[in-house]
From TrEMBL:
Cellular component terms (Gene Ontology): chromosome; cytoplasm; nucleus
Sorted UniProt keywords: Chromatin regulator, Chromosome, Cytoplasm, Hydrolase, Metal-binding, Nucleus, Repressor, Transcription, Transcription regulation
Protein name: Histone deacetylase 8
Species this protein is from: Mycena metata
Cofactor dependency: a divalent metal cation
Entry keyword annotation includes Transcription regulation: yes
Coiled coil: none
EC number(s) stated in the UniProt entry for this protein: 3.5.1.98
Any one GO MF annotation of this record: metal ion binding
Start and end residues of each Histone deacetylase domain: 32-345
Length: 409
């Protein structure tokens, strides 16, 4: 045993909980829409040294194994009929076809071997991240296998079999904080920010308000919306004077680039300042990055102003409160692994260089032809005009004013 004297580490410890396990990686890699993506994500993060205690002098990472969600935890949102079916492994091959159709288990969400374990573990992983955030030292949690924002209360949808985002938000919504001088407890405010290419219909519909109270949860989705583009929803449009100011959407046109996101981010900042949340949950879908098979946006990874990394960096480094980063869409698996490794380094306060070479590891050949970390923008034309972005700004200036007024009532 090495008995060499070591100076005690007197740095203030801010902990980042990284929710992962071999079991979670294996079942997530079975997801039909993202075969083996989870394995790429976590092995690249490890090969880049992100799990080392010495990676960052600002924040230390803690690997947290997920706790599998029980029926009662999943049933806080999902219906009993849905859970009875998806949690029974026999229904993968022998389940009634009519029931499968009713529950959305067809087309883009076919039943698959391991589905029951997947629902329990992915749902449990995001809930584990919420529990980690309740520890005093933990300021940030990461669950890249979560972020399934299309799943509905009683249906699978859009490659999503479990509404882990909604379950996590419901858990956060139940949290309270003791008032000053042992006064009455105060409900915590939570902001959900969705950066996926697709509208967060499952989450937005779950929390959409029709009352005029002052909710303690706000959802904000930045996405593409167009006729025929999934998912179709009346909530996917820009806010109006009559819409719920706590269920927000910012649709962008094809080719959205760093420039467009930098302009749009001004509205995000206005809304955040007006709502002033205690917790922020960011769904970091990466299907808007250039090179994704969806081929709609022309977003880059970072670190330029307006890039994905820049946006997430603003949240984790400049906004107050605790944060939860979730995964989501992303159908070029090596690029998804690149993106979430880079965002992990941003969350740890030590951003990796986009020009960094991919280390040699099991999946190294998949990172051809560049073999570097960056996901650069392409040549797609940005169709978001200055006039449209000015309309966005004016719309959200009005929304932020309404939110600020509502929060003082």
């Amino acid at each position: 045993m090495d008995t060499t004297s070591v100076e005690p580490d007197t740095r203030p410890v801010v902990q980042v909980a990284y929710v992962a396990s071999l079991e979670l990686m294996k079942v997530s890699s079975l997801l039909p829409s993202n075969k083996n993506r989870s394995a790429l994500v976590h092995t690249l993060a490890r090969s880049l040294g992100l799990f080392s205690r010495n990676f960052s002098s600002m924040r230390t990472i803690a690997l947290v194994p997920p706790q599998s969600a029980g029926f009662a935890e999943l049933n806080t949102y999902h219906t009993k009929d849905y859970l009875d079916f998806v949690l029974d492994p026999r229904n993968v091959k022998s389940g009634d076809d009519g029931t499968k159709t009713e529950l959305g288990l067809e087309d883009d969400c076919p039943p698959f071997e391991g589905m029951a374990d997947y629902v329990r573990l992915v749902g449990g992983a995001s809930l584990t991240a919420v529990k980690a955030l309740q520890q005093p030292r933990c300021e940030l949690a990461i669950c890249w296998d979560g972020g399934r924002h299309h799943a509905q209360k009683s249906q699978a949808a859009g490659f999503c079999y479990v509404a882990d985002c909604t379950l996590a938000l419901m858990a956060l919504r139940r949290l309270t904080e003791q008032g000053p001088q042992a006064g009455p407890a105060r409900k915590m405010r939570t902001m959900y920010l969705d950066l996926d290419l697709h509208f967060s219909d499952g989450v937005s519909h779950a929390f959409h308000q029709t009352t005029t109270g002052s909710p303690h949860l706000l959802t904000f989705s930045i996405h593409h919306a167009a006729p025929g583009f999934f998912p179709a929803s009346a909530l996917a449009s820009l806010p109006t004077a009559d819409s719920d100011p706590f269920t927000l959407s910012l649709p962008l046109q094809p080719g959205a680039s760093n420039r467009t996101f930098a302009r749009a981010w001004q509205s995000v900042e206005r809304v955040h300042a007006a709502f002033n949340p205690d917790y922020v949950v960011v769904q970091c879908g990466v299907d808007g990055l250039a090179g994704d098979p969806c081929a709609v946006f022309n977003w880059s990874l970072g670190p330029e102003e307006g890039s994905l990394g820049w946006c997430v960096g603003r949240v984790v480094n400049e906004w107050r409160g605790k944060k939860l980063l979730l995964g989501g869409g992303g159908y070029d698996s090596p690029n998804a692994a690149r993106a979430w490794a880079y965002l992990t380094s941003v969350a740890l306060g030590n951003p990796l260089s986009p020009d960094l070479s991919i280390p040699d590891h099991d999946h190294f050949p998949l990172y051809a032809p560049s073999f570097v970390l960056d996901v650069p923008a392409g040549n797609m034309q940005d169709q978001n005009s200055d006039e449209y972005l000015e309309t966005v700004k004016q719309t959200f200036d009005g929304v932020a004013t309404v939110i600020a007024e509502r929060m003082t009532k």
